[in-house]
Amino acid sequence: MTPDPSKPRFKAKAVRLAEIHAAARELFFVKGFAGTTMAQIAQRAGVSKGTVYLYFKNKDELYISLMMPVLEELGRHLEIFGRKVAARQVPDKRAFLDAICEIDLRTYAFDPDGMRIIQAFQLGNHFSAMSAETIATINRRAATNYRTTRDILSQAMRDGILKTRDTVQLSDILWSMFIGVVQLEESKARTTRKDHLKETLRAAFEVLADGL
Amino acid sequence: MTPDPSKPRFKAKAVRLAEIHAAARELFFVKGFAGTTMAQIAQRAGVSKGTVYLYFKNKDELYISLMMPVLEELGRHLEIFGRKVAARQVPDKRAFLDAICEIDLRTYAFDPDGMRIIQAFQLGNHFSAMSAETIATINRRAATNYRTTRDILSQAMRDGILKTRDTVQLSDILWSMFIGVVQLEESKARTTRKDHLKETLRAAFEVLADGL
Amino acid sequence: MTPDPSKPRFKAKAVRLAEIHAAARELFFVKGFAGTTMAQIAQRAGVSKGTVYLYFKNKDELYISLMMPVLEELGRHLEIFGRKVAARQVPDKRAFLDAICEIDLRTYAFDPDGMRIIQAFQLGNHFSAMSAETIATINRRAATNYRTTRDILSQAMRDGILKTRDTVQLSDILWSMFIGVVQLEESKARTTRKDHLKETLRAAFEVLADGL
Amino acid sequence: MTPDPSKPRFKAKAVRLAEIHAAARELFFVKGFAGTTMAQIAQRAGVSKGTVYLYFKNKDELYISLMMPVLEELGRHLEIFGRKVAARQVPDKRAFLDAICEIDLRTYAFDPDGMRIIQAFQLGNHFSAMSAETIATINRRAATNYRTTRDILSQAMRDGILKTRDTVQLSDILWSMFIGVVQLEESKARTTRKDHLKETLRAAFEVLADGL
DNA sequence: CATGAATGAGAGTTCATTCAT
DNA sequence: AATGAATGAACTCTCATTCAT
To answer: Which of A28-42, B181-195, C147-161 shows the highest mean pLDDT?
Structure first.
């Protein structure tokens, strides 16, 4: 009855949550949103169905919750890079775009399944049943990253690393390239079992670097 | 379920089919594959559920039938452009990429909903609910376009319009840019109600042209 | 417009009916009642679905109509045999039971599918949707055969061919043996692809002959 | 669909299962396999449709689960009798056939509906609606009983209780007599409301005993 | 007479969600 | 906090039957 002080309750709760998260991520990745059942997630997480509902209001919330860490990871990298740019530690556009490319790759590597969920979310499917609050939470986080990106671009233009341009348009192009390559290469990987994501993304950013 | 009795009961097959197509497109666009029911499609098309199955073997077939025209439209444009390239009617890389950009825009304009369905498909979220045969059919058609694109790129490189490069990688970059921009701009348009797709895509292809 | 006198209308009608009958019989035999669709029957008969409904009120009636000829065939054989018994042309119980056995076999051979339909009907399944009138028609015909059988048995007992016994019970035993063997041997034939119906039925009737 | 709220929501698994079994048996008996719906079964059992699927994988499994106990009951009786025969405790053919007859009657009494379901199955009318695996499971169990019967007959012949004969044929005759009488008497009972099954079956086996 | 497009009720089955324990 | 039996709405798909032509 007395909770083991070496294993505080909130810790156990966090562990449970992480286990469910992990189970959900793997299954959603392999079988997609519709193809994954709450029962499967519960089983893989080693808990009962009811317990999953103790941690997540419903399937949508669980799905969505998987993308927050990715957005936060991306935000962390962007901020670090922002500080580097502000400190004039980025010599030229080549290094600049290289860095962006590596941030994208690291974000992807951090959680490929989560990344795909972000894309599905951006595509706007299945989420009619999602609570407005959840959608707003996600959008707020995404907007923050977006703003950070534009701030970095502004700084780079002020410093002459990049030619002066519309920062909105440029950040759109960079993000589009990222998600476009991720989508295409994942799609190809699903049938060919070969993963060319890194090479293609790097090649793409090289072309962009030359063009900017 | 109950169709409007004021409508004539019998219609030209092509008309019925078009009505079902239109209804399906709109619904799949808004609610996604899994989120759309055959009953909804039937109701919106003004026919009974059974009638939908008279025209399409199952939900999969109906879904794929919506992307095929888009893939075919894209294929037509690519072939026309391919003949132009073969006839040396494309002077330089700027004109070349302009043309690709216009093909993308025209394909998108031909059927934006269909285009989005292609993306949702490429993202792979319905896979478990779709027969392997259906998936294969689409992939075959997509592969054809893919090959055509690479052939065009090869020709352009032989003619010195483009620097010699890996055609697989380059066609991936071009397609990724396209779908990335479409996804991002549609996502933004959904909340801001402003459509910047054309400008962003053209800007993106300009950068690419400069970089190649 | 003027009907061809060499091919009178009622003849054509009978042919159509026979074609539908034949198609239905084959399909019901192979795929069972529930497994056969009206569309399949129509297609095999070379007519449209609507036409089948011109000749048969519904699927049940069509199914049921297939057993009438069998009951009539059985009735014809019984009457012929009855006249033979009345004319003292059957010497002993062995010959008597031999004759019954051959009647059964000939009835079965006349239309095995129809025979099976009779059994399904007797088993009482699926016919909740059948019109009382149809059921009554069948039962009337069956009752006639039943009465004929008992009359024959009475006559045979009066003539000392068979020991005096309860005719109801005896006719039940004979019919039970017949349908029991048919059911078992068909069931076995379905998996072993070997047809031992004749041998088994003859052996069974020999045993019965010895026991009576 | 909606269960009686006055009933306790949770029940012992075995009780629930028995309730569903009972409901299914009654309905399959009256309306046949195809004529019975899962919804009807659920309603009669006082549970929701989903609950039925909690206990049985599908309609097939539920159906077969109803015959298995009967086949097993028959198997038990046969084995007991087999041991008696092996121990020379059966004096003559009359006692032998009496015993078989009583086994049949007891098996029938154990579950008349289940017995009828076996017959419907043997008649083969649901085959297209039933998975090959399900069919095989039943056939395997039936084959076991069949083999036991033949072993018993062989032993009886070795002991001179029965005249030497083809055991396959003889077991077929005995089983045919049983199912034939069951089918006929049930059919008659349905209209006359008089049950002569026992008498008819005993009379039939007496005749067979005399004939063997 | 004949057609076959259209119907629509209803089948089996799944699964997110609830709630008594 | 955790369970999992139970729910029931919703799904895809079938098919006997009708009826305008």
So the answer is: C147-161
